[in-house]
Specification:
single chain; about 170 residues; alpha+beta; eight-stranded antiparallel beta sheet; two-stranded antiparallel ribbon
């Protein structure tokens, strides 16, 4: 990836609670023919099954969902504050109706594994799907989450992802 340097995922020292919850990220999946991205402010990063992992959640009605389902790999891209408007745009427009990446002022690059990522990111995590399942109403121990976040019963699908490569902007 031009302009990026690969680092060991364990060398990333960013605060992912802030990066995901406050700064947001873009989840990008697809191929050289077609890809899509979506803004996400829920997820996590950690260590599971002796692997560095990320957790992403996507509602099935999102256009990016079909790309995430089709592909084995995806990227999580993180940005400096100057890209806040682009992330807002990507979170409020659908790639079904337009080239939202271009219209947000962003562009696509590809990792060494040919996974699409966003060129303007300061950190990119390339990820491989390890496990996924739909969130299920009967599995919520705190039922107030259903009332607050799933009144329409439109549950997310959760993906546990192995972080295969990490790239930082040079």
């Amino acid at each position: 990836m031009d302009g990026f340097k690969e680092i060991n995922p364990a060398a990333v020292t960013d605060n992912f609670i802030k990066l995901i919850g406050e700064d947001w990220m873009l989840i990008t999946a697809g191929d050289h023919v077609e890809c899509n991205t979506m803004t996400a402010s829920w997820g996590g990063v950690g260590y599971l099954w002796n692997k560095p992992i990320a957790i992403a959640v996507i509602r099935p009605q999102r256009h990016t969902f079909e790309f995430t389902e089709r592909e084995q790999m995806l990227t999580l891209s993180f940005f400096k504050e100057e890209y806040r408007d682009a992330l807002k745009y990507c979170g409020s427009h659908s790639g079904r109706n337009e080239d939202k990446i271009h219209n947000a002022g962003l562009s696509v690059t590809f990792t060494d594994e040919e996974v699409p990522a966003i060129t303007q990111a300061s950190l990119v995590l390339e990820c491989r799907k390890l496990y996924c399942d739909m969130l299920k109403e009967e599995c919520f121990l705190d039922k107030s989450i259903i009332d607050k976040w799933y009144a329409a019963k439109d549950y997310h699908k959760a993906y546990i992802l192995e972080i295969t490569h990490a790239y930082i902007k040079e």
